[in-house]
Amino acid sequence: MGKYHHGDVRNVLLQQAENILTKEGPSGLSLRRLARLTGVSEAAPYRHFDGKDGILAAVAIDALERFAERLENVAAQVENHQERVMALGAAYVHFAVDFPQHFRLIFGRERPPLDQYPELREAADNAFDVLQRAVTSVDRSANMTLNEAATAYNRALAAWSRAHGIAMLVIDGMIVPPADQNLDDFVLGLLAEDLTAPEHH
Amino acid sequence: MGKYHHGDVRNVLLQQAENILTKEGPSGLSLRRLARLTGVSEAAPYRHFDGKDGILAAVAIDALERFAERLENVAAQVENHQERVMALGAAYVHFAVDFPQHFRLIFGRERPPLDQYPELREAADNAFDVLQRAVTSVDRSANMTLNEAATAYNRALAAWSRAHGIAMLVIDGMIVPPADQNLDDFVLGLLAEDLTAPEHH
DNA sequence: CCTATAATGTTAACAAAGTTAACATAAGAA
DNA sequence: TTCTTATGTTAACTTTGTTAACATTATAGG
């Protein structure tokens, strides 16, 4: 009689890893605990994943796909090109606030090395592509010349950086969004600030 | 005869912790290894620090002080108010690239909780204050009304976020600065991008 | 100067983690 | 059926954070 656990242990492990990550973050995700909670031997995960990094990579890819999906949904709902870029920035931060542990896993120090997990790099690039396409469409709508469009990539990087910086500082507790204001509005305000010209409003 | 290690073990431990951090990052900083490298018993650090978080906090405070110092130096060297904000952003990123491990320790997940180490929070606030003062001086030079100046804090947050986002994405390998360009110039370019108005140059 | 007490060391032990080796069983192809 | 591979298991090894129990030094008060 099979005292062995069978079935798709891999998927069960992944799902359980998701649960642990959400509740306790990447540091709380211990292979042994994961195995115990899943009801499987402590060495079983090594049959399905390339050690701890392997599991982290799998979870990170999953998270990145949902992240990109969410960004695409937002992008599809906003008609105006410039508003779309802003909305994406807000959605970016919103995701980080909703799923700080996933966000940290995706971009933080415990993310497995990108060059060791090509699918991970690909998933990350996909998310950035959504932002880049939005920025490019702004540039096109402004009838930019080809020469000017060459900087479109830089403009996308700038948009990405702003959203990323806000997201990081917020989930790390360095920036505390005002309690009496909608998070998205707060973020949109920060994204719209122009540092070189203080005569706004 | 004193087979016991004596002298200011605390300082030696701190210095050694600095070395390890620089070479291997916060994860490589193990208390036992630190003690061994310092030539002291494996439990000795607990006499001088409040466990691992205690040491991390001490190192982080040190790093933050040098970070703030560097920012202040840059701020003092630039006359023009607006250029000063930009230069600070570039210096912010430059520090992150020069000392990625320190930067990660300061802002990342393994930083001990701010509310548990008041001196740590103070050191972090100091660094941000440099940015905030620079932004405020731009606003003042533009003859802002008091009402408008109320948003100065938000403008400082925006400046901070941009620099922070670029720094994070660069040291995490998501943004790769062009090899044929000066790092500061690249950063200044990103900081100056205005997302809502593509008609530049 | 002597002695009680606090500060600073030490060694030894504990539990938890990542990982691997050695072995056991199930499933499928030949 | 039988050989091979995939998938489990248990047991061990190393490292880490932490604490307890004990040893030594420094220092303050008499």
Number of domains of chain A: 2
Report the strand count of chain A.
0
What order do the helices and strands of chain A follow? HHHHHHHHHH
Parts with pLDDT < 50 across at least 5 consecutive residues of chain A:
none
Query: From the helix content, strand content and strand pairing of chain A, which structural class follows?
Result: mainly alpha
The total of helices of chain A stands at: 10
Biggest interface, which chains?
Answer: A-B, 53 and 53 residues
CATH homologous superfamily (4th level) name of the largest domain in chain A: Tetracycline Repressor, domain 2
Principal-axis shape of chain A = elongated
Oligomer: homodimer
If you compute it from the alpha carbons, what radius of gyration of chain A comes out, rounded to the nearest whole angstrom? Answer: 20 Å
Brief synopsis:
Chains A, B: Keywords: DNA-binding, Transcription, Transcription regulation. Two copies of one chain form a homodimer. With 201 residues, chain A is mainly α.
